[in-house]
Amino acid sequence: METKKNKGLFSKILIIFIILGLLLSIILSISDFELVIEKLKETNVFWMLLSAVISILSVVVLSISNQVALRSLDKNITYFDGFLVQTTEPFFSGITPFGSGAQPFQIYEMVKKGARSDVASAVSLVNFIVFQTVTVIILIISLIIYWNELWAGMGYNIFYILAGIFFNTIILVLLLLLGYAKGFGKFVTKILLFFQKYRWSKKWATRGLEKADIFIENFQTGVKVLMPKKRILIASTLLKIVSFILKYGSIIFVLIALGHSLTPSEYLYLTAASFIAINAMMWVPLPGASGGTEFALGMMLNAIPLFYGGVKNPILIIVLLLWRFITYYLQLIIGFIAYLLLKRKNKKNDELINSEEN
């Protein structure tokens, strides 16, 4: 079973790097390849490293924000174990379409570490509700403030951003219904019963029916306990906002590393565009929304004179490539390291238990 899981995991990682190779070949074939390489050689290493450190810090702060909620409900899990579980998030979100892989893995690991299933479900999904709430609010505010700039850069392609905000909002509404609506469990059951009638969906619908009632009951029970803890929610929310600022602001230092500067208002727009590109394009059904994310940011940056010319502008291409590495691939690596450390600790614990039993 473990071997099969590992094969599935590494096949997903392989797909990610195949997608990366295809994107690189397409992007670099459009732009002046030699000029891009020349510009990359001039990159200031200090500012690039600072950008990378800031991105890593954003993962740490996000993990701490999730850990705050976990420790408020369950202290059986050690700080380090809880931190590792939370730090795997960018890895499992990054290798699965729609960023859907983190929560199931985290719930599984928390239960394995001794947390009650209702607590694990509540912590993971309440953290996701807080994350999604902050995301939707920032997306809407950014859309209102920067509508003219977004329209100037994207034109009618802004529909993709609007679609992304709509899907994010729908996800948030469904999560709130899942947490608070008493009759929502029956509604989910009816949907699963409908899909159980068809051969192509019968298998996963049947699996869903077996788990849905218990999962929803556990989640709603946990939500009732966690949501009234206002200090915990405020602390978790503020830490997530700090994490967002660090992650999406890292693109500023990428630009500085390339020897370019913008006005303060352009820097703010650059940060907002980075946030919008990653979060509004998650509906693209590829790991990390690859392709859609780069397309969206490239279009949005057309509103800044430095990036005029689109994909034929080498500065834009370099910024896109470095930004994508800093905010996606680097965080993916950090999450993968956390997963390996967690797996190693689990193996040692299992060996210890087996030796005590013998």
From TrEMBL:
One of its GO terms (cellular component) is plasma membrane. The chain crosses the membrane at residues 12-33, 45-65, 119-146, 158-181, 237-261, 267-286, 293-311, 317-342. Its main location: membrane. The keyword Membrane applies. The keyword Membrane applies. Keywords: Cell membrane, Membrane, Transmembrane, Transmembrane helix. It is a multi-pass membrane protein. It comes from the Bacteria. It is found in: Cell membrane. Pfam families: LPG_synthase_TM (PF03706). PANTHER family: INTEGRAL MEMBRANE PROTEIN, PHOSPHATIDYLGLYCEROL LYSYLTRANSFERASE. NCBIfam families: flippase-like domain. This is Predicted lysylphosphatidylglycerol synthetase. It comes from Alteracholeplasma palmae (strain ATCC 49389 / J233) (Acholeplasma palmae).
